[in-house]
């Protein structure tokens, strides 16, 4: 009989995982402790913007016309316990307030609740990003007969559906052949076709995730450090990235210089990793991540200074600043630790009149920064602006007509914080175009 799967926590990771498992033919029950989320998902709606996710979900949510009916949502732990052969725990591990360490309270409480209801013989599978050593600790909380496995997830926001259905690799940390066999059964579907299946122990599985994210963060900060040097030496970091990227050992990806990385993962993951290494007495091994973090944070301040310079130096008081982009990356409505909003907020705090426009992130941005100005279109944001900052590289912004914007802007100056616009198009339309890590003209 086919395995029955539960997914605990229905954020980006959980909602996508639940829908993907249903797509693969499993009966799936998703649990969230927030009743509004359960209600929304049960109607086939997703509480965030993620391309393709709502379509995938609606194809399977029980009760919707034409759906497979394989996917349901609940707030009841008893239901989850009775239903599941395999329980995927997908709850959030945010950064602790005022500390580097990650907040394990959601994971701990999910495992405590699961431990009370899971059937004998079922398998609990952790997917959340956790400090190394957590799996061993959590395994001890589970009752006799309920085993644990660790199966980190590598999906990117904006590509969540594709990354889940076609993962680069599947990594499982297990302590028994039975757990490995069950997970092979879960992934013995088209999902794993062609994907390497890496079987390892708990600590390695946990570390694969944090080290992968640290590597990605390091790559971005490396190219941003090169951008700083390029600016000092009149070099062009975009050409430099292209040229070093042809070396396959380096690769082209994750070498886009700009205002740096943000979001709910990379920044907090490198900090939690440093905190955990400290606890383990291995802090020296990760001191470089402190530099990765500080190069990254410096980018935001540097963008503020470039904006100040473009306005003639001195104070922002009374200056009108248009900000294109609020989310931490395009194709997402996520504004958690967004470099774009951070820059907008800094300029606002220094007296600038900031007007933000973002294709999908406006509601979340308004909630986080209610005092900033907001416009309904890019054109409205730019109207009368003394300087325009391009801070999240949405396709919509690449397709803007510089001439049309130039007609309404107070002054034709644009700073490209993502090195994503075409300098020639903007300059030909009479704009002063400036990007990070590239010569001024
Ligand atoms: C990341 C990891 O990529 C993913 O594998 C993991 O599961 C979760 O964390 P995500 O946070 O969705 O995914 O975004 P990602 O695409 O990695 O981008 C992170 C940040 O880095 C964004 O702010 C992006 O703008 C920035 N970035 C990315 C750069 O500044 N330059 C680059 O070259 C690439």
Automatic annotation (TrEMBL):
Q: Which keywords annotate this record?
A: NAD, Oxidoreductase
InterPro entries this protein is in?
Answer: 6-PGluconate_DH-like_C_sf, NAD(P)-bd_dom_sf, UDP-Glc/GDP-Man, UDP-Glc/GDP-Man_DH_C, UDP-Glc/GDP-Man_DH_C_sf, UDP-Glc/GDP-Man_DH_dimer, UDP-Glc/GDP-Man_DH_N, UDPglc_DH_bac
Query: At the top level of its lineage, which domain of life is listed?
Result: Bacteria
Query: Does the keyword Oxidoreductase feature in the UniProt annotation?
Result: yes
Start and end residues of each UDP-glucose/GDP-mannose dehydrogenase C-terminal domain:
322-423
Query: Catalysed reaction(s)?
Result: UDP-alpha-D-glucose + 2 NAD(+) + H2O = UDP-alpha-D-glucuronate + 2 NADH + 3 H(+)
UniProt similarity note: Belongs to the UDP-glucose/GDP-mannose dehydrogenase family.
Q: What is this protein called?
A: UDP-glucose 6-dehydrogenase
Species this chain originates from = Streptomyces monticola
């Amino acid at each position: 009989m086919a395995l029955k799967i539960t997914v605990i926590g229905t954020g980006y990771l959980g909602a996508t995982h639940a829908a993907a498992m249903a797509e693969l033919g499993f009966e799936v029950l998703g649990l969230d402790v927030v009743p509004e989320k359960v209600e929304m998902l049960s109607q086939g709606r997703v509480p965030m913007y993620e391309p393709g996710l709502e379509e995938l979900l609606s194809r399977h949510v029980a009760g919707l016309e034409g759906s497979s009916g394989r996917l349901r949502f609940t707030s009841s732990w008893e239901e989850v316990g009775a239903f599941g052969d395999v329980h995927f725990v997908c709850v959030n591990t945010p950064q602790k307030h005022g500390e580097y360490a990650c907040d394990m309270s959601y994971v701990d409480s999910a495992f405590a609740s699961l431990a009370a209801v899971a059937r004998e013989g079922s398998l609990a599978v952790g997917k959340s990003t956790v400090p190394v050593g957590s799996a061993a600790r959590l395994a001890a909380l589970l009752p006799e007969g309920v085993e644990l496995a660790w199966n980190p997830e590598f999906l990117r926001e904006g590509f969540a559906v594709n990354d889940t259905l076609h993962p680069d690799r599947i990594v499982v940390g297990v302590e028994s052949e039975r757990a490995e066999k069950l997970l092979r059964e879960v992934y013995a579907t088209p999902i794993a076709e062609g994907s390497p299946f890496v079987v390892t122990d708990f600590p390695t599985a946990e570390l694969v995730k944090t080290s992968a994210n640290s590597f990605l963060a390091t790559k971005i900060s490396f190219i941003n450090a090169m951008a700083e040097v390029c600016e000092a030496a009149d070099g062009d970091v975009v050409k430099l990235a292209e040229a070093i990227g042809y070396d396959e050992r380096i690769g082209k990806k994750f070498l886009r210089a700009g205002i740096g990385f943000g979001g709910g993962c990379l920044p907090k993951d490198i900090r939690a990793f440093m905190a955990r290494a400290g606890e383990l007495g291995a802090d020296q091994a990760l001191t470089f991540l402190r530099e990765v973090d500080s190069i990254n944070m410096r980018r935001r301040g540097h963008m503020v200074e470039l904006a100040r310079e473009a306005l003639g130096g001195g104070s922002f008081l009374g200056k009108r600043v248009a900000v294109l982009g609020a989310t931490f990356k395009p194709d997402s409505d996520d504004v958690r630790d967004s470099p774009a909003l951070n820059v907008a907020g800094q300029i606002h705090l220094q007296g600038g009149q900031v007007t933000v426009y973002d294709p999908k992130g406006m509601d979340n941005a308004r909630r986080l920064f209610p005092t900033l100005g907001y416009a309904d279109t890019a054109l409205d944001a730019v109207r009368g602006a003394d300087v325009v900052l391009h801070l999240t590289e949405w396709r919509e912004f690449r397709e803007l007509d510089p001439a049309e914007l130039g007609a309404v802007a107070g002054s034709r100056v644009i700073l490209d914080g993502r090195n994503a616009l075409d300098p020639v198009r903007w300059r030909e339309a009479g704009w002063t175009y400036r990007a990070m890590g590239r010569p001024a003209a």
